[in-house]
Write a structure and sequence with these properties.
There is one protein chain. The protein has an 8-stranded mixed beta sheet with strand order 6-10-11-18-17-16-15-14, sandwiched between helices. It has a 5-stranded mixed barrel with strand order 1-2-3-5-4. Helices cover about 35% and strands about 25% of the residues. It is α+β, with helices and mostly antiparallel strands. It folds into 2 domains: about 45-160, OB fold (Dihydrolipoamide Acetyltransferase, E2P), CATH 2.40.50.140; about 195-345 and about 390-505, BirA Bifunctional Protein, domain 2 (2-Layer Sandwich).
């Protein structure tokens, strides 16, 4: 291994290090040579202890609108950021830098900048992180800049950034090297910051409504709480098989049994399913449970939450997703599943109640005709809704009255036990939230668990096992409760006009990267 790749004068020899450095490009070798020259001059290319006293955003806000002659003498500002562009004129240069808040120009001039600072500038590359001190002025062209009195390279960038004006254009590379994507495109950072602000608002909304935030297990001995295929893992010390949780529901409802009347958790869930524009195996949800409330209360609660995000975070009642304009102000539409299917298929409720009519509506869907023919009326209704209606629910809409047979954890409706007290919340043609008046009859719950177990034994790898401990918890008595889960990733996608879930997950799951040709 070449000495210039080491630090502290120590030469390391290692097959893994050698293998990696053999991949270095000619441009990287040039940068490494500059790093060596910094070290030889007594300047550490990875410095510490240099703290800015302002941000580029502040400087722009403070001086951006002022005329050149009105700026006058300013304090000495200390700034730091990554060099995104260099315009070199020999004895002077403009550096466009990014400090995470915005971009700003540094003006380096041999007659003004310290001798050591200007010498370090000569060893600078696009992508280096620099520290500078100086005062603010405007150029003859009216451009705001920092007149640099002193500067130093804080971090030497060894690997060149992509071409300055286009950044990463390959989608796979963008998500794999998200750190580069964020460096090159401030809009990427802005979108991910918006996600953080949405999440913060949601948390504060729940705190304001007296909900207790909790954390429940990520590893379960029984996979349950939703219909999905789990990820399996093994605990060595206990010698037991475990599942990464597919939902926190059953543990949160145990807390309701235990005496907490309002609880929520915002955290990860894991489902061993395929990737798509709307699916990532690891995703974020918020689930909450509210004792003595019903699913009807949760519709009002959800409408207030979403419209509040629009008003206080997005700062607009209307958001655009692709060609769709979505009005988040409210009130939101509320339809039963039968009403929705009737509306969007030009049918009557009586026709929707007829199994033969549903089969006729589904004759052209991309499904195995024999399997469709074998479905019960309730499952045909759900299939008709999913295939013919969902994609048309662009404006915020609550869909209620789900068949009991597809809702194993929901409370049966008192007036019609064939349906449950449940809604799903849709926007942009996507399901964003799912809510029930919760089932708290332990006998009914056990029977539904048993039905799920039979389906699993018959080959359904998304069906759940019987969670006997949860049945036992219900036998101690759970107050009447309503609960809901909201997909944070999908919600943020819609609110930020992001066409794929990978845009709003900082580090989405990707296939393993192979750095060396002999890797399989």
């Amino acid at each position: 291994m070449d000495e210039k790749l080491t630090t502290s004068g120590k030469i390391m020899k290692d097959k893994h290090v050698d293998r990696w450095t053999e991949l270095f490009s000619e441009q990287m070798e040039v940068r490494l040579d500059k790093r060596k020259k910094l070290e030889e001059s007594g300047s550490n290319p990875y410095k510490n202890g240099f703290t800015p006293n302002t941000s580029f955003k502040y400087l722009t806000e403070q001086y951006g609108e002022k005329a050149k002659e009105d700026i006058g003498e300013t304090p000495t500002y200390k700034v730091a950021g990554r060099v995104m562009m260099v315009r070199d004129f020999g004895k002077a240069a403009f550096l466009q830098c990014d400090d995470g808040s915005s971009r700003f120009q540094l003006y380096v001039k041999k007659e003004v900048t310290s001798e050591k600072g200007f010498a370090e500038y000569k060893l600078l590359d696009y992508g280096d992180i620099v520290y500078a001190e100086g005062d603010v002025f405007k150029t003859m062209k009216g451009e705001l800049a920092l007149n640099v009195k002193d500067m130093t390279i804080l971090t030497k960038s060894i690997r060149p950034l992509p071409e300055k004006f286009h950044g990463l254009t390959d989608a796979e590379l963008r998500y794999r090297m998200r750190y580069v994507d964020m460096i090159m495109d401030p809009e990427v950072r802005a979108k991910l910051k918006m996600r953080s602000e949405i999440v913060r608002y949601i948390r504060e909304y729940f705190y304001k409504n007296d909900f207790l935030e909790v954390e429940t297990p990520m590893m379960h001995s029984v996979a349950g709480g939703a219909t999905a295929k789990p990820f399996n893992t093994h605990h060595n010390a206990l010698n037991m098989e475990l599942f990464m949780r597919i939902a926190p529901e059953l543990h949160l409802k145990r807390l309701i049994v235990g005496g907490y009347n309002k609880v929520f958790e915002m955290n990860r869930c894991f489902r061993n399913e395929g990737l798509s524009l709307k699916h990532n195996p690891e995703f974020t949800t918020i689930e909450f449970y509210w004792a003595y409330a019903t699913y009807l209360d949760l519709m009002d609660f959800t409408e207030e939450l979403i419209s509040g995000i629009a008003q206080h975070v997005i700062k607009s009642e209307v958001v655009k997703f692709g060609e769709n304009e979505i009005n988040l102000k409210g009130p939101y539409a509320r339809l039963t599943m039968r009403e929705a299917v009737a509306k969007y298929t030009n049918s009557t409720i009586d026709q929707i109640n007829d199994r033969t009519h549903l089969l006729g509506l589904l004759k052209d869907v991309d499904q195995d005709p024999k399997k469709v023919q074998a479905l019960s009326w309730g499952r045909l209704l759900v299939l008709a809704f999913e295939e013919l209606v969902e994609s048309k629910l662009i404006q915020p809409t609550f869909i209620t009255e789900y068949p009991t047979e597809v809702s194993p954890l929901s409370r049966r409706n008192d007036a019609n036990p064939e349906f449950v007290d449940r809604f799903e919340f849709f926007m942009n043609g996507w399901e964003v939230g799912n809510a029930f008046s919760e089932l708290n009859n332990p006998t009914d719950q056990l029977e539904r668990f048993a039905e799920q177990a039979r389906q699993k034994e018959a080959g359904d790898d998304e069906a759940s096992d019987v969670d006997y401990d949860f049945v036992r918890a219900l036998e101690y008595g759970m107050p009447p409760t309503a609960g809901q889960g909201i997909g944070i990733d999908r919600l943020v996608m819609i609110l930020t006009d992001s066409p794929t879930i990978r845009e709003v997950i900082i580090f989405p799951l990707l296939k393993k990267e192979h750095f060396f040709s002999e890797e399989e």
